[in-house]
Amino acid sequence: MFVANGRGRALMFFYFAGPLGSGFGYMFGSYANSLLNGWQWALRLTPVFGTICVVLVILIIREPERGEAETATGATAANRIEATSYWSDIVALLQTRTYVSATIAFTAVIFSMMSLSWWGPMSVCLAFAMNNKLNSTDDINKQTQAQINFLFGLITMIGGLTGVITGSLWAQMWSSGKCCFRWVRTKRSNAIVCASGSFMGTFFLFFGLQFMERNMSVAWVFKLFTLLLFSSFRTSYLERTVR
C-alpha cells in the first residue's frame, strides 16, 4: 500500500493505536468502575467498540495485491514477485539474523511494557498506601484509584504518541542526513534508534521505580520518558523490518 518513506509514515500512524488504546482503556476503565460500581463494566463495554471496528474492517478495507504499490510507482522488481509457500517464508526469515535478533529484542521490550502496564498503576497504589500509612491498597478510596489510573493512562498516551513520532522522525532524518545528522548519515539509523531507545528506557524505568517512595511527581516524569523511549524503539523496529 505504501512505498519508501511513505511506508514509514504509515507505520507511524498505525502505531498511534497502541498508546491511544492503552491510555484510553485505563481512563475509560477507571471511570466505568467509579460510575457503575464495578470494574467488570470496563470489560463489558469495550467489546462494543471492538465489534464496530471489526465490522468496519470487513466492509471498508480492501486487501491489496502484493507489490501493487511498487508496481504503481514503476518499480520493476515488484513485477518479479512470486508467491511462495508458508514454510519457505518461515525458513527464509529464520535465516535472516537481523530479523531474528530484532524480533527477540522486540519481544523483550513488549514484555517489559506489558508488565509495566499491569504493575505500573499497582506500584503507584502501593507507594500511595505506604506514604499515607495505610495497611493495604484496598483502603484507598475509589476516587483516588480512579485518579491514579486516569493519570497513568494520560501519561501512556502522551509518552507513547511522542515516542512514536520522535522515533520515526529521528530515524528518517538520520538515514537521509537531514538537519544535525548531515555529517553522520547512516543506513543503520533504525537499528541505532532501537538500541538507544530501549537502553535509555531501562534506566528511566529503574529510577522511576526508585523515586516512588520519595517523590511521586518525579516518578511520573520518569515513567513518561520510559514509555517515550520504548515507543520509539517499537516504531523504528517496524520500519526496519518491513523494508
From TrEMBL:
UniProt GO cellular component terms: membrane
InterPro entries reported for this sequence: MFS_spinster-like, MFS_trans_sf
Membrane topology: Multi-pass membrane protein
UniProt entry keywords in alphabetical sequence: Membrane, Transmembrane, Transmembrane helix, Transport
Compartments, record wording: Membrane
Main location: membrane
Superkingdom field: Eukaryota
Gene3D superfamilies cross-referenced by the UniProt entry: MFS general substrate transporter like domains
Metal-binding among keywords: no
Chain ranges passing through the membrane: 12-29, 41-61, 104-130, 150-171, 191-212, 218-237
SUPFAM superfamilies, per database record: MFS general substrate transporter
PANTHER family: MAJOR FACILITATOR SUPERFAMILY (MFS) PROFILE DOMAIN-CONTAINING PROTEIN, SPINSTER
Protein name (database record): Major facilitator superfamily (MFS) profile domain-containing protein
Species classification: Eukaryota, Metazoa, Ecdysozoa, Nematoda, Chromadorea
